[in-house]
Protein backbone atom coordinates (compact mmCIF):
# COMPACT_ATOMS: atom_id res chain seq x y z
CA UNK A 1 0.00 0.00 0.00
CA UNK A 2 0.93 3.64 -0.16
CA UNK A 3 3.61 4.73 2.26
CA UNK A 4 1.88 7.70 3.87
CA UNK A 5 -0.04 6.83 7.03
CA UNK A 6 -3.77 7.46 6.75
CA UNK A 7 -6.54 8.15 9.17
CA UNK A 8 -8.27 4.84 9.80
CA UNK A 9 -11.86 5.86 9.42
CA UNK A 10 -12.44 7.01 5.85
CA UNK A 11 -15.56 5.64 4.21
CA UNK A 12 -16.42 5.00 0.60
CA UNK A 13 -19.79 4.05 -0.83
CA UNK A 14 -19.37 1.99 -3.96
CA UNK A 15 -22.45 1.96 -6.23
CA UNK A 16 -22.59 -0.83 -8.81
CA UNK A 17 -24.86 -3.22 -10.67
CA UNK A 18 -22.67 -6.32 -10.13
CA UNK A 19 -20.42 -7.62 -7.38
CA UNK A 20 -18.58 -10.96 -7.21
CA UNK A 21 -19.22 -13.48 -5.82
CA UNK A 22 -22.93 -12.58 -5.65
CA UNK A 23 -23.79 -11.43 -9.15
CA UNK A 24 -21.48 -11.35 -12.14
CA UNK A 25 -21.71 -11.03 -15.91
CA UNK A 26 -18.13 -9.83 -16.44
CA UNK A 27 -15.07 -8.14 -15.01
CA UNK A 28 -16.99 -5.28 -13.40
CA UNK A 29 -18.21 -7.72 -10.75
CA UNK A 30 -14.70 -8.98 -10.03
CA UNK A 31 -13.42 -5.44 -9.56
CA UNK A 32 -16.32 -4.24 -7.39
CA UNK A 33 -15.99 -7.37 -5.25
CA UNK A 34 -12.21 -7.14 -4.84
CA UNK A 35 -11.69 -3.41 -4.26
CA UNK A 36 -13.11 -3.23 -0.70
CA UNK A 37 -10.52 -5.61 0.78
CA UNK A 38 -7.76 -3.94 -1.22
CA UNK A 39 -8.84 -0.45 -0.06
CA UNK A 40 -9.12 -1.56 3.56
CA UNK A 41 -5.34 -1.92 3.67
CA UNK A 42 -5.13 1.83 3.03
CA UNK A 43 -7.60 2.74 5.74
CA UNK A 44 -10.73 2.96 3.58
CA UNK A 45 -13.86 1.19 4.74
CA UNK A 46 -16.22 0.30 1.88
CA UNK A 47 -19.90 -0.43 1.60
CA UNK A 48 -21.21 -1.69 -1.72
CA UNK A 49 -24.70 -0.65 -2.81
CA UNK A 50 -26.16 -3.23 -5.18
CA UNK A 51 -29.65 -4.17 -6.40
CA UNK A 52 -31.17 -7.11 -4.49
CA UNK A 53 -31.72 -9.30 -7.54
CA UNK A 54 -33.90 -12.39 -6.99
CA UNK A 55 -32.51 -14.83 -4.46
CA UNK A 56 -29.76 -12.52 -3.36
CA UNK A 57 -31.23 -11.59 0.03
CA UNK A 58 -31.66 -15.27 0.85
CA UNK A 59 -28.08 -16.01 -0.13
CA UNK A 60 -26.49 -13.40 2.12
CA UNK A 61 -28.19 -14.63 5.29
CA UNK A 62 -29.11 -12.24 8.09
CA UNK A 63 -29.87 -8.64 7.09
CA UNK A 64 -30.99 -5.47 8.85
CA UNK A 65 -32.96 -2.56 7.51
CA UNK A 66 -30.58 0.26 6.61
CA UNK A 67 -32.79 2.69 4.72
CA UNK A 68 -36.38 3.01 3.52
CA UNK A 69 -37.83 4.89 0.55
CA UNK A 70 -41.63 4.72 0.17
CA UNK A 71 -41.62 5.97 -3.39
CA UNK A 72 -38.62 4.87 -5.39
CA UNK A 73 -39.45 5.31 -9.06
CA UNK A 74 -42.92 3.80 -8.82
CA UNK A 75 -42.84 1.58 -5.75
CA UNK A 76 -41.63 1.14 -2.20
CA UNK A 77 -38.01 0.16 -1.55
CA UNK A 78 -35.86 -0.85 1.36
CA UNK A 79 -32.09 -1.12 1.62
CA UNK A 80 -31.00 -4.18 3.61
CA UNK A 81 -27.57 -4.27 5.21
CA UNK A 82 -25.62 -7.56 5.14
CA UNK A 83 -22.15 -8.95 5.56
CA UNK A 84 -21.19 -11.62 3.06
CA UNK A 85 -17.91 -12.99 1.71
CA UNK A 86 -16.01 -10.28 3.59
CA UNK A 87 -18.10 -7.51 2.00
CA UNK A 88 -20.32 -4.92 3.68
CA UNK A 89 -23.31 -4.84 1.39
CA UNK A 90 -26.27 -2.52 1.03
CA UNK A 91 -28.86 -4.41 -0.98
CA UNK A 92 -31.56 -2.38 -2.65
CA UNK A 93 -34.75 -4.39 -2.28
CA UNK A 94 -37.18 -2.86 -4.80
CA UNK A 95 -39.27 -5.72 -6.21
CA UNK A 96 -41.00 -3.52 -8.81
CA UNK A 97 -37.57 -2.89 -10.39
CA UNK A 98 -35.38 -5.90 -9.62
CA UNK A 99 -37.55 -8.93 -8.92
CA UNK A 100 -37.29 -10.28 -12.47
CA UNK A 101 -36.22 -13.54 -14.08
CA UNK A 102 -33.09 -13.54 -16.30
CA UNK A 103 -29.79 -11.73 -15.73
CA UNK A 104 -29.25 -8.30 -14.19
CA UNK A 105 -30.06 -6.49 -17.44
CA UNK A 106 -32.02 -8.84 -19.68
CA UNK A 107 -34.22 -11.86 -20.00
CA UNK A 108 -33.80 -14.31 -22.91
CA UNK A 109 -31.36 -11.93 -24.62
CA UNK A 110 -33.77 -8.98 -24.51
CA UNK A 111 -32.88 -5.95 -22.38
CA UNK A 112 -35.51 -4.79 -19.91
CA UNK A 113 -37.19 -1.75 -21.49
CA UNK A 114 -37.00 0.17 -18.20
CA UNK A 115 -33.28 -0.41 -17.53
CA UNK A 116 -32.62 3.33 -17.47
CA UNK A 117 -35.17 3.79 -14.68
CA UNK A 118 -34.05 0.67 -12.79
CA UNK A 119 -30.48 1.90 -12.48
CA UNK A 120 -31.49 5.53 -12.05
CA UNK A 121 -33.29 4.23 -8.96
CA UNK A 122 -30.08 2.55 -7.77
CA UNK A 123 -28.22 5.82 -8.34
CA UNK A 124 -30.92 7.77 -6.51
CA UNK A 125 -30.51 5.56 -3.46
CA UNK A 126 -26.74 6.13 -3.68
CA UNK A 127 -27.52 9.83 -3.48
CA UNK A 128 -29.86 9.37 -0.52
CA UNK A 129 -27.33 7.36 1.45
CA UNK A 130 -24.61 9.91 0.74
CA UNK A 131 -26.90 12.70 1.93
CA UNK A 132 -28.47 11.17 5.02
CA UNK A 133 -26.56 7.98 5.84
CA UNK A 134 -27.82 4.55 6.88
CA UNK A 135 -29.64 3.41 10.04
CA UNK A 136 -26.40 3.07 12.00
CA UNK A 137 -25.17 6.57 11.21
CA UNK A 138 -22.77 5.47 8.46
CA UNK A 139 -22.16 8.17 5.84
CA UNK A 140 -19.57 8.05 3.08
CA UNK A 141 -16.68 10.51 2.70
CA UNK A 142 -16.54 9.60 -0.99
CA UNK A 143 -18.99 8.03 -3.43
CA UNK A 144 -17.54 5.73 -6.11
CA UNK A 145 -19.87 5.18 -9.10
CA UNK A 146 -19.17 2.28 -11.47
CA UNK A 147 -20.18 2.48 -15.14
CA UNK A 148 -23.42 3.90 -16.54
CA UNK A 149 -25.59 2.01 -14.08
CA UNK A 150 -24.30 4.28 -11.30
CA UNK A 151 -23.63 7.29 -13.55
CA UNK A 152 -26.53 9.33 -12.27
CA UNK A 153 -25.31 9.22 -8.65
CA UNK A 154 -22.76 12.05 -9.17
CA UNK A 155 -25.43 14.04 -11.05
CA UNK A 156 -28.11 13.62 -8.38
CA UNK A 157 -25.62 14.71 -5.72
CA UNK A 158 -24.58 17.65 -7.88
CA UNK A 159 -28.21 18.79 -8.31
CA UNK A 160 -28.75 18.35 -4.57
CA UNK A 161 -25.88 20.79 -3.97
CA UNK A 162 -24.02 18.13 -1.99
CA UNK A 163 -20.33 18.53 -1.20
CA UNK A 164 -19.69 14.78 -0.94
CA UNK A 165 -16.94 14.04 -3.49
CA UNK A 166 -17.81 11.60 -6.27
CA UNK A 167 -15.64 9.46 -8.54
CA UNK A 168 -16.98 8.01 -11.77
CA UNK A 169 -15.19 4.93 -13.09
CA UNK A 170 -15.50 3.91 -16.74
CA UNK A 171 -15.21 0.14 -17.07
CA UNK A 172 -16.48 0.19 -20.63
CA UNK A 173 -17.46 3.32 -22.54
CA UNK A 174 -19.38 1.25 -25.10
CA UNK A 175 -22.26 0.94 -22.63
CA UNK A 176 -23.77 4.31 -21.81
CA UNK A 177 -27.34 3.84 -20.56
CA UNK A 178 -29.00 5.87 -23.31
CA UNK A 179 -32.68 6.78 -23.06
CA UNK A 180 -35.08 9.22 -24.75
CA UNK A 181 -35.33 12.80 -23.53
CA UNK A 182 -39.02 12.19 -22.75
CA UNK A 183 -37.75 10.22 -19.72
CA UNK A 184 -36.01 13.20 -18.06
CA UNK A 185 -38.86 13.79 -15.65
CA UNK A 186 -39.27 10.16 -14.79
CA UNK A 187 -35.54 9.93 -14.06
CA UNK A 188 -35.78 13.00 -11.80
CA UNK A 189 -33.40 14.97 -14.01
CA UNK A 190 -33.76 18.69 -14.72
CA UNK A 191 -34.92 19.55 -18.23
CA UNK A 192 -32.84 22.76 -18.13
CA UNK A 193 -29.62 20.70 -18.01
CA UNK A 194 -30.48 18.70 -21.12
CA UNK A 195 -27.84 20.09 -23.48
CA UNK A 196 -24.52 18.84 -24.89
CA UNK A 197 -22.47 20.28 -21.98
CA UNK A 198 -24.36 18.10 -19.48
CA UNK A 199 -26.93 15.31 -19.89
CA UNK A 200 -27.48 15.22 -23.65
CA UNK A 201 -25.79 12.74 -25.95
CA UNK A 202 -26.94 13.24 -29.53
CA UNK A 203 -30.55 13.94 -28.60
CA UNK A 204 -30.77 11.36 -25.85
CA UNK A 205 -29.94 11.19 -22.16
CA UNK A 206 -26.69 9.38 -21.33
CA UNK A 207 -26.30 8.15 -17.76
CA UNK A 208 -22.57 7.59 -18.26
CA UNK A 209 -22.03 11.07 -19.67
CA UNK A 210 -23.90 12.52 -16.71
CA UNK A 211 -21.42 10.84 -14.38
CA UNK A 212 -18.46 12.00 -16.48
CA UNK A 213 -19.66 15.58 -16.39
CA UNK A 214 -20.65 15.79 -12.73
CA UNK A 215 -18.20 13.56 -10.84
CA UNK A 216 -15.31 15.29 -9.09
CA UNK A 217 -12.89 12.88 -10.72
CA UNK A 218 -13.06 10.30 -13.51
CA UNK A 219 -11.11 7.09 -13.57
CA UNK A 220 -10.80 4.25 -16.01
CA UNK A 221 -9.33 0.81 -15.64
CA UNK A 222 -5.95 1.08 -17.38
CA UNK A 223 -3.50 3.83 -18.38
CA UNK A 224 -3.63 2.93 -22.08
CA UNK A 225 -7.45 2.93 -22.14
CA UNK A 226 -7.40 6.36 -20.45
CA UNK A 227 -5.41 7.59 -23.40
CA UNK A 228 -7.50 5.74 -25.98
CA UNK A 229 -10.73 7.18 -24.55
CA UNK A 230 -9.68 10.67 -25.60
CA UNK A 231 -9.73 9.71 -29.30
CA UNK A 232 -12.50 9.09 -31.80
CA UNK A 233 -11.68 5.42 -32.40
CA UNK A 234 -12.29 4.30 -28.82
CA UNK A 235 -14.24 7.17 -27.23
CA UNK A 236 -17.69 6.16 -28.55
CA UNK A 237 -18.68 9.81 -28.92
CA UNK A 238 -17.63 10.74 -25.37
CA UNK A 239 -14.04 11.60 -26.32
CA UNK A 240 -14.76 15.35 -26.08
CA UNK A 241 -16.07 15.19 -22.50
CA UNK A 242 -13.29 12.83 -21.46
CA UNK A 243 -10.58 14.96 -23.07
CA UNK A 244 -11.91 18.00 -21.21
CA UNK A 245 -11.58 16.12 -17.89
CA UNK A 246 -8.09 14.97 -18.84
CA UNK A 247 -7.02 18.51 -19.68
CA UNK A 248 -8.05 19.57 -16.18
CA UNK A 249 -6.00 16.74 -14.68
CA UNK A 250 -9.15 14.91 -13.58
CA UNK A 251 -8.83 11.68 -15.58
CA UNK A 252 -6.92 8.81 -13.98
CA UNK A 253 -6.03 5.49 -15.61
CA UNK A 254 -5.76 3.03 -12.73
CA UNK A 255 -5.03 -0.54 -13.76
CA UNK A 256 -7.34 -3.22 -12.33
CA UNK A 257 -5.86 -5.96 -10.23
CA UNK A 258 -7.13 -9.47 -9.56
CA UNK A 259 -8.23 -10.95 -6.26
CA UNK A 260 -5.21 -13.09 -5.45
CA UNK A 261 -7.09 -15.04 -2.80
CA UNK A 262 -9.77 -16.19 -5.22
CA UNK A 263 -7.38 -16.61 -8.17
CA UNK A 264 -4.50 -18.59 -6.73
CA UNK A 265 -3.48 -21.79 -8.54
CA UNK A 266 -1.88 -23.08 -5.33
CA UNK A 267 -5.10 -22.89 -3.33
CA UNK A 268 -7.93 -22.90 -5.88
CA UNK A 269 -10.56 -25.50 -4.92
CA UNK A 270 -11.62 -25.86 -8.57
CA UNK A 271 -8.24 -27.07 -9.88
CA UNK A 272 -5.38 -29.49 -9.12
CA UNK A 273 -3.19 -27.05 -7.18
CA UNK A 274 0.30 -26.00 -8.28
CA UNK A 275 2.68 -23.18 -7.44
CA UNK A 276 5.40 -21.25 -9.26
CA UNK A 277 8.75 -22.77 -8.38
CA UNK A 278 10.49 -20.98 -5.56
CA UNK A 279 7.30 -19.36 -4.31
CA UNK A 280 5.97 -20.08 -0.82
CA UNK A 281 5.66 -23.84 -0.38
CA UNK A 282 2.05 -24.96 -0.29
CA UNK A 283 1.83 -28.46 1.14
CA UNK A 284 -0.69 -29.82 -1.35
CA UNK A 285 0.52 -28.02 -4.46
CA UNK A 286 2.74 -29.57 -7.11
CA UNK A 287 5.36 -27.79 -9.20
CA UNK A 288 4.22 -25.88 -12.27
CA UNK A 289 5.13 -28.42 -14.94
CA UNK A 290 3.42 -31.30 -13.13
CA UNK A 291 0.44 -29.19 -12.09
CA UNK A 292 -0.15 -27.74 -15.53
CA UNK A 293 0.13 -31.17 -17.16
CA UNK A 294 -2.43 -32.62 -14.74
CA UNK A 295 -4.91 -29.82 -15.24
CA UNK A 296 -4.40 -29.99 -18.99
CA UNK A 297 -5.27 -33.70 -19.03
CA UNK A 298 -8.42 -33.05 -17.00
CA UNK A 299 -9.46 -30.31 -19.40
CA UNK A 300 -8.81 -32.33 -22.56
CA UNK A 301 -10.90 -35.16 -21.16
CA UNK A 302 -13.68 -32.79 -20.10
CA UNK A 303 -13.87 -31.30 -23.61
CA UNK A 304 -13.43 -34.67 -25.36
CA UNK A 305 -10.23 -33.58 -27.14
CA UNK A 306 -7.19 -35.57 -28.28
CA UNK A 307 -3.85 -34.72 -26.74
CA UNK A 308 -2.45 -32.09 -29.10
CA UNK A 309 1.14 -31.90 -30.32
CA UNK A 310 1.03 -28.13 -29.98
CA UNK A 311 -0.39 -25.80 -27.31
CA UNK A 312 -3.89 -26.05 -25.84
CA UNK A 313 -5.47 -22.60 -26.12
CA UNK A 314 -8.42 -21.52 -23.95
CA UNK A 315 -10.96 -18.73 -24.32
CA UNK A 316 -13.30 -17.50 -21.54
CA UNK A 317 -15.45 -14.63 -22.66
CA UNK A 318 -18.68 -12.83 -23.35
CA UNK A 319 -19.35 -13.56 -27.03
CA UNK A 320 -19.57 -10.07 -28.50
CA UNK A 321 -18.10 -7.96 -31.28
CA UNK A 322 -15.77 -6.34 -28.70
CA UNK A 323 -14.10 -9.65 -27.96
CA UNK A 324 -13.03 -10.36 -31.57
CA UNK A 325 -14.72 -13.75 -31.90
CA UNK A 326 -14.65 -13.37 -35.70
CA UNK A 327 -10.85 -13.09 -35.50
CA UNK A 328 -10.78 -16.38 -33.61
CA UNK A 329 -12.95 -18.06 -36.24
CA UNK A 330 -10.58 -16.85 -38.93
CA UNK A 331 -7.32 -17.81 -37.23
CA UNK A 332 -8.15 -20.99 -35.34
CA UNK A 333 -8.43 -23.46 -38.28
CA UNK A 334 -4.77 -22.87 -39.21
CA UNK A 335 -3.71 -23.15 -35.58
CA UNK A 336 -5.60 -26.43 -35.15
CA UNK A 337 -4.19 -27.87 -38.38
CA UNK A 338 -0.71 -27.01 -37.12
CA UNK A 339 -1.26 -29.25 -34.08
CA UNK A 340 -2.93 -26.91 -31.59
CA UNK A 341 -6.19 -27.43 -29.70
CA UNK A 342 -8.74 -25.01 -28.28
CA UNK A 343 -11.35 -25.06 -25.51
CA UNK A 344 -13.88 -22.22 -25.41
CA UNK A 345 -16.35 -21.15 -22.71
CA UNK A 346 -18.67 -18.28 -23.47
CA UNK A 347 -22.14 -17.05 -24.17
CA UNK A 348 -23.76 -14.07 -25.83
CA UNK A 349 -24.34 -13.15 -29.45
CA UNK A 350 -26.12 -16.07 -31.22
CA UNK A 351 -24.06 -15.59 -34.42
CA UNK A 352 -20.81 -15.93 -32.44
CA UNK A 353 -22.20 -19.01 -30.68
CA UNK A 354 -23.10 -20.60 -34.02
CA UNK A 355 -19.68 -19.80 -35.50
CA UNK A 356 -17.89 -21.47 -32.61
CA UNK A 357 -20.15 -24.52 -32.67
CA UNK A 358 -19.46 -24.87 -36.41
CA UNK A 359 -15.74 -24.81 -35.67
CA UNK A 360 -16.23 -27.53 -33.09
CA UNK A 361 -18.16 -29.62 -35.62
CA UNK A 362 -15.35 -29.23 -38.16
CA UNK A 363 -12.58 -30.11 -35.68
CA UNK A 364 -14.30 -32.38 -33.13
CA UNK A 365 -11.05 -33.79 -31.69
CA UNK A 366 -9.21 -30.44 -31.52
CA UNK A 367 -11.87 -27.82 -30.70
CA UNK A 368 -14.32 -27.94 -27.78
CA UNK A 369 -16.97 -25.30 -27.17
CA UNK A 370 -19.23 -24.84 -24.12
CA UNK A 371 -21.95 -22.28 -24.48
CA UNK A 372 -22.96 -20.94 -21.10
CA UNK A 373 -21.66 -19.27 -17.98
CA UNK A 374 -19.71 -21.49 -15.57
CA UNK A 375 -17.43 -19.99 -12.93
CA UNK A 376 -15.72 -23.26 -11.77
CA UNK A 377 -15.09 -24.31 -15.38
CA UNK A 378 -13.46 -20.94 -16.05
CA UNK A 379 -10.90 -21.73 -13.31
CA UNK A 380 -10.22 -25.17 -14.83
CA UNK A 381 -9.67 -23.56 -18.22
CA UNK A 382 -7.03 -21.12 -16.97
CA UNK A 383 -5.34 -23.94 -15.05
CA UNK A 384 -5.35 -26.41 -17.95
CA UNK A 385 -4.58 -24.04 -20.83
CA UNK A 386 -1.14 -23.37 -22.31
CA UNK A 387 -2.44 -20.18 -23.93
CA UNK A 388 -5.35 -17.84 -23.17
CA UNK A 389 -6.60 -15.97 -26.23
CA UNK A 390 -7.92 -12.41 -25.91
CA UNK A 391 -8.17 -10.90 -29.43
CA UNK A 392 -10.39 -7.97 -28.34
CA UNK A 393 -11.07 -5.01 -30.65
CA UNK A 394 -10.85 -2.85 -27.54
CA UNK A 395 -10.34 -3.84 -23.93
CA UNK A 396 -10.56 -1.28 -21.13
CA UNK A 397 -8.58 -3.55 -18.84
CA UNK A 398 -9.40 -7.22 -19.28
CA UNK A 399 -9.06 -9.71 -16.47
CA UNK A 400 -8.85 -13.01 -18.34
CA UNK A 401 -5.29 -12.31 -19.52
CA UNK A 402 -4.34 -11.63 -15.88
CA UNK A 403 -5.95 -14.88 -14.72
CA UNK A 404 -4.02 -16.53 -17.56
CA UNK A 405 -0.75 -15.00 -16.34
CA UNK A 406 -1.41 -16.08 -12.77
CA UNK A 407 -2.30 -19.66 -13.82
CA UNK A 408 0.48 -20.11 -16.37
CA UNK A 409 -1.74 -19.88 -19.46
CA UNK A 410 0.37 -17.56 -21.60
CA UNK A 411 -1.77 -14.68 -22.96
CA UNK A 412 -2.13 -13.94 -26.68
CA UNK A 413 -3.71 -10.48 -26.77
CA UNK A 414 -4.44 -7.47 -28.91
CA UNK A 415 -2.09 -4.59 -28.08
CA UNK A 416 -4.89 -2.37 -26.81
CA UNK A 417 -6.12 -0.96 -23.48
CA UNK A 418 -5.26 -2.96 -20.39
CA UNK A 419 -4.08 -5.88 -22.53
CA UNK A 420 -1.16 -3.76 -23.67
CA UNK A 421 -0.48 -2.64 -20.09
CA UNK A 422 -0.37 -6.15 -18.61
CA UNK A 423 1.25 -8.39 -21.25
CA UNK A 424 4.80 -7.93 -22.61
CA UNK A 425 5.16 -9.28 -26.16
CA UNK A 426 7.72 -12.04 -26.62
CA UNK A 427 10.07 -10.52 -29.20
CA UNK A 428 13.80 -11.14 -29.63
CA UNK A 429 14.63 -8.29 -27.26
CA UNK A 430 12.15 -9.11 -24.46
CA UNK A 431 12.99 -12.81 -24.58
CA UNK A 432 16.67 -11.95 -24.29
CA UNK A 433 16.24 -9.48 -21.43
CA UNK A 434 13.74 -11.69 -19.61
CA UNK A 435 10.72 -9.42 -19.62
CA UNK A 436 8.40 -11.23 -22.09
CA UNK A 437 5.16 -12.64 -20.67
CA UNK A 438 2.94 -13.31 -23.72
CA UNK A 439 2.20 -12.41 -27.33
CA UNK A 440 0.67 -9.35 -28.94
CA UNK A 441 -1.40 -9.75 -32.08
CA UNK A 442 0.32 -8.37 -35.14
CA UNK A 443 -2.68 -6.09 -35.84
CA UNK A 444 -6.32 -6.52 -34.80
CA UNK A 445 -7.18 -8.87 -37.66
CA UNK A 446 -7.57 -12.59 -38.30
CA UNK A 447 -4.11 -12.82 -39.95
CA UNK A 448 -2.68 -10.77 -37.05
CA UNK A 449 -3.98 -13.37 -34.61
CA UNK A 450 -2.85 -16.24 -36.87
CA UNK A 451 0.72 -14.96 -36.93
CA UNK A 452 0.78 -14.43 -33.14
CA UNK A 453 -0.45 -18.02 -32.75
CA UNK A 454 2.34 -19.21 -35.06
CA UNK A 455 4.92 -17.43 -32.91
CA UNK A 456 3.39 -18.98 -29.79
CA UNK A 457 3.36 -22.46 -31.34
CA UNK A 458 7.02 -22.12 -32.30
CA UNK A 459 8.11 -21.06 -28.84
CA UNK A 460 5.99 -23.79 -27.26
CA UNK A 461 8.10 -26.32 -29.14
CA UNK A 462 11.09 -25.22 -27.01
CA UNK A 463 10.21 -26.56 -23.53
CA UNK A 464 12.92 -24.63 -21.71
CA UNK A 465 12.06 -21.25 -23.22
CA UNK A 466 8.37 -22.01 -22.76
CA UNK A 467 8.72 -22.84 -19.07
CA UNK A 468 10.68 -19.62 -18.59
CA UNK A 469 8.01 -17.52 -20.30
CA UNK A 470 5.19 -19.19 -18.39
CA UNK A 471 6.79 -18.84 -14.97
CA UNK A 472 7.69 -15.23 -15.58
CA UNK A 473 4.01 -14.58 -16.29
CA UNK A 474 3.01 -16.38 -13.12
CA UNK A 475 5.20 -13.98 -11.17
CA UNK A 476 3.94 -10.81 -12.89
CA UNK A 477 2.47 -8.39 -10.39
CA UNK A 478 -1.28 -8.61 -11.09
CA UNK A 479 -2.61 -8.03 -7.57
CA UNK A 480 -4.41 -4.97 -6.26
CA UNK A 481 -1.87 -3.39 -3.91
CA UNK A 482 -0.41 -0.68 -6.17
CA UNK A 483 -3.73 0.24 -7.77
CA UNK A 484 -5.71 0.22 -4.53
CA UNK A 485 -3.18 2.69 -3.15
CA UNK A 486 -3.82 4.90 -6.18
CA UNK A 487 -7.57 4.83 -5.56
CA UNK A 488 -6.98 5.59 -1.89
CA UNK A 489 -4.72 8.52 -2.80
CA UNK A 490 -7.30 9.84 -5.24
CA UNK A 491 -10.14 9.53 -2.71
CA UNK A 492 -8.01 11.21 -0.07
CA UNK A 493 -7.20 14.10 -2.41
CA UNK A 494 -10.93 14.76 -2.87
CA UNK A 495 -11.96 14.73 0.79
P1 LIG B 1 -15.50 -8.17 -19.60
O1 LIG B 1 -15.77 -7.57 -18.27
O2 LIG B 1 -15.41 -7.18 -20.70
O3 LIG B 1 -16.41 -9.29 -19.93
P2 LIG B 1 -13.01 -9.07 -18.35
O4 LIG B 1 -11.87 -9.81 -18.93
O5 LIG B 1 -12.73 -7.86 -17.58
O6 LIG B 1 -14.02 -8.81 -19.56
O7 LIG B 1 -13.79 -10.01 -17.33
C1 LIG B 1 -14.48 -11.15 -17.70
C2 LIG B 1 -14.76 -11.95 -16.44
O8 LIG B 1 -15.88 -12.78 -16.67
C3 LIG B 1 -13.64 -12.88 -16.05
O9 LIG B 1 -13.69 -13.08 -14.66
C4 LIG B 1 -13.99 -14.15 -16.81
O10 LIG B 1 -13.38 -15.29 -16.23
C5 LIG B 1 -15.48 -14.14 -16.63
N1 LIG B 1 -16.25 -14.84 -17.68
C6 LIG B 1 -16.55 -14.39 -18.93
N2 LIG B 1 -17.32 -15.27 -19.57
C7 LIG B 1 -17.51 -16.30 -18.73
C8 LIG B 1 -18.24 -17.53 -18.82
N3 LIG B 1 -18.92 -17.86 -19.91
N4 LIG B 1 -18.23 -18.35 -17.75
C9 LIG B 1 -17.54 -18.02 -16.62
N5 LIG B 1 -16.85 -16.88 -16.48
C10 LIG B 1 -16.84 -16.03 -17.51
C1 LIG C 1 -15.36 -4.01 -18.47
C2 LIG C 1 -14.29 -4.11 -19.54
C3 LIG C 1 -13.11 -4.96 -19.13
C4 LIG C 1 -12.68 -4.65 -17.71
C5 LIG C 1 -13.86 -4.78 -16.76
C6 LIG C 1 -13.50 -4.47 -15.32
O1 LIG C 1 -16.26 -5.07 -18.52
O2 LIG C 1 -14.83 -4.59 -20.76
O3 LIG C 1 -12.03 -4.71 -20.01
O4 LIG C 1 -11.66 -5.53 -17.31
O5 LIG C 1 -14.86 -3.89 -17.14
O6 LIG C 1 -13.01 -3.16 -15.17
For the record, what is the CATH homologous superfamily label of the largest domain?
Answer: Glycogen Phosphorylase B
Q: Report the count of strand segments.
A: 22
Can you list the ligands bound to this structure?
adenosine-5'-diphosphate, alpha-D-glucopyranose
Number of domains: 2
Shape: globular
Task: Look at the structure and give the CATH class of the largest domain.
Answer: Alpha Beta
Helix content: 25-40%
Quick one: biggest sheet? Answer: 9 strands, mixed
- CATH topology title of the largest domain: Rossmann fold
CATH architecture of the largest domain: 3-Layer(aba) Sandwich
Distance between the termini: 19 Å
Number of separate helices: 19
Q: Strand order within the widest sheet?
A: 3-4-5-2-1-8-9-13-14
Q: What is the arithmetic mean of pLDDT?
A: 95
Given helix and strand content, the structural type is: alpha/beta
Stretches where pLDDT falls below 50 for ≥5 residues? Answer: 1-7
- Binned strand content: 15-25%
Rounded to the nearest angstrom, the radius of gyration is 23 Å
Describe the structure.
There is one protein chain. The chain is built from 19 helices and 22 strands. It has about 500 residues and is of the alpha/beta class. The chain has 2 domains: about 10-255 and about 480-495, Rossmann fold (3-Layer(aba) Sandwich); about 285-475, Rossmann fold (3-Layer(aba) Sandwich). The strands form 5 sheets. Strands 3-4-5-2-1-8-9-13-14 form a 9-stranded mixed β-sheet, with helices on both faces. A 6-stranded parallel β-sheet has the order 19-18-17-20-21-22, sandwiched between helices. Helix 10 packs across helix 13 (about 375-385). The two termini are about 20 Å apart. The protein binds adenosine-5'-diphosphate and alpha-D-glucopyranose. Adenosine-5'-diphosphate binds near residues 374, 375, 398 and 400. The site of alpha-D-glucopyranose has 14 residues, from helix 1.
Amino acid sequence: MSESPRPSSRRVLSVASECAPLVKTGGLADVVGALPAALAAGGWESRVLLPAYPGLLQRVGATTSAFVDDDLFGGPAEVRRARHAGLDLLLLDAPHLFDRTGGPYEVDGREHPDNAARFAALSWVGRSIALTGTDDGWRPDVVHAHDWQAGLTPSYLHYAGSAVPTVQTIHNVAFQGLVGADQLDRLRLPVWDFHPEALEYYGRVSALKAGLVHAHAVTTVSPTYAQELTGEEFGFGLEGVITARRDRGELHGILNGIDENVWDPAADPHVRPYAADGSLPVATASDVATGKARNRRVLLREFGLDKPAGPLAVVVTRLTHQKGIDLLLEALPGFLRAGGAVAVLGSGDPACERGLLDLEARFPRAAGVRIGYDEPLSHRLYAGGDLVLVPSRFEPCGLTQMYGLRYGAVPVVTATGGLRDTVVDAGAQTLADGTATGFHLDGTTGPGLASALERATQLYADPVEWARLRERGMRSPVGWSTSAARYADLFESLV
